[in-house]
Structure prediction request, 382 residues.
Amino acid sequence: MTGVPPGPSDAKQAVAALSAGLTRLAEQLFQLDTSPELALAREPDRLTGRSAAVAREASDLAASLWQRYPALKEAVAGLESALAAGDRAEVDRRLGPRGVTLPDGSAARPAAVLADLEGDVNKARAAADRLARAWRDVVPRLDGAAAALAAVAAEAAALGVDEPELPSAQGLVRELSALAATDPLTVDPGPAEQAVERARRRVGTLASRRATLTADLQAASAILQELDRLIRDGNDAHALATARIASPAGLAPPLGPDALERGPQALGPWLARLESQAEAGSWVAAVTGLEGWRQASARRRADAERVLAANRAPVARRNDLRGLLDAYRAKAAAQGRAEDPELTRLYGLARDTLYGGPCDVEAAGERVQEYLAAVNRAGSVR
Prediction:
């Protein structure tokens, strides 16, 4: 029933629980007071921003705990004395809502004060831990970024290149490191690490391309030869189509035998300049230019393959029709109708159109279809 004073057994249990709680609290306060995490928060004036606020919270809580703890300790000692003396009224009074007089003049039950103090111990520890985790995470990561950046700068210097990502990455690492010294909670090392990684990849790529530059130039020369062959094949296919096919459709204009040697981005002279730069020691310019050359050569290859495919198509269509006609001639023979007058007539028309020159592919296609249809009809009649 609410408000009824505890009986003797309940009072003993309450005092025993308070005594055990006080012992536990004393150990928690000692651990908090000696923890390196709280030591980081004891000088909040040296910090700024969020870190200063968290440090001040932890420091203020710790100071408040040590101010309130003696009042609770005194109250529990009084309870133990009253219980030992058998003074039930004094025990009830000290367990009541004014059992502990706090430094600010307010009063509270000992159990409530104990609960508040233990809750504040946890809050102070959490605030101190939060600040300490930031120190342990942010500072080593920025130190690692600085070390990695120094290695990248050394590699760039050894290569003799001015990497544009380096100055900005160095500035960012310095800025964040300075901020981490006073406000680690606001610092995200991620952007600095990403900037270092970008610089590392760029310098690493340059180093790799320098090592393979000779082989890459040789490969480019082979690409140039292959392009020359594709262009010539496309032009030859154009000449063949115009000679063998009547009014060939879809032909692509020839690129010309000198398509790789003339114009502002002619691939032949461009590659020769890159080779000269590499021989003269200007390997960075050669590496950079070679990337552009590869892109331009890929575009030119796509053009050459498109021209070749378009110009081969009319003759390829004629040849496909020839093959189809011969296949159905064999089918007619297998049906025993090789000498059939109508089939022979249709076959002759189709063959004359296909093998006469220049070949009218459209007309030849129609006559081949007529022959195919006739062979199929003959087969179905049988």
Residues 213-312 form one domain. The two ends are 111 Å apart (CA to CA). The first helix runs from residue 8 to 34.
